[in-house]
Amino acid sequence: MKDQNTTARSKFLSLVLRHSPETIGLKLDEAGWARTDELLACLARSGRPTRLEELQRIVADNNKQRYSFSADGKRIRANQGHSIKVELGLEARRPPAVLYHGTATRFLDAIFHEGLNRQSRHHVHLSESQAVAAQVGSRHGKLAMLQVDAERMQGEGHVFYRSDNGVWLTDVVPARYLLKLAP
Ligand code: HQG
């Protein structure tokens, strides 16, 4: 069981590595990496002293593997989900035949009108499993499950990426590739 403290620290890590590193005076490079020692120094200066071993545990135990260390451990970044501009350097990959996107029923009219958009994120996020998509969608309200014809999308020129933690990413999903599954 994770204690509340660990969860709060992990959420704060998301905030600084994905959205606003300046909150604690941290700088990320263009690929989203922070120096591990700088991160620890910034956390301490902002009243959140964290030992390296604690940071390593947060990264290792994160339920969605949201963060990665570089191979030498000197740098750390979020695997996806940024709102600030970063170039993760992901390579285009062939997606599975179908992917899933969970959303809220109140968004469906707009989604079937204009397609799935990336909103404040870099990409539209898609899942290989309906179970994961259901969790993602339920965060927004009453769940609606969408199936994405990823194979046809790719065949028609859409590019897909897979983040280091297994989330499928693409720029936009036009409505013609979407099928709403029965609740
Ligand atoms: C919806 C979490 C109206 C979209 C999860 C979604 C994921 C539209 C919401 C990751 C729309 C955006 C991403 C349109 C899309 N009209 N609504 N045209 N197009 N939407 O949170 O996919 O915990 O930015 O369906 O696990 O829910 O952060 O995206 O409901 O991987 O690691 O607009 O966030 O990961 O919401 O979640 P979000 P998401 P983390």
From TrEMBL:
EC number: 2.7.1.-
A molecular function GO annotation: NAD+ poly-ADP-ribosyltransferase activity
Signal peptide: none
Source organism, top-level taxon: Bacteria
Keywords for the protein's UniProt record, in alphabetical order: NAD, Transferase
Similarity-based family: Belongs to the KptA/TPT1 family.
PANTHER family: PUTATIVE PHOSPHOTRANSFERASE (PTHR12684), TRNA 2'-PHOSPHOTRANSFERASE 1 (PTHR12684:SF2)
Functional description taken from the UniProt entry: Removes the 2'-phosphate from RNA via an intermediate in which the phosphate is ADP-ribosylated by NAD followed by a presumed transesterification to release the RNA and generate ADP-ribose 1''-2''-cyclic phosphate (APPR>P). May function as an ADP-ribosylase.
Protein name, UniProt field: Probable RNA 2'-phosphotransferase
UniProt source species: Comamonas testosteroni
Species classification: Bacteria, Pseudomonadati, Pseudomonadota, Betaproteobacteria, Burkholderiales
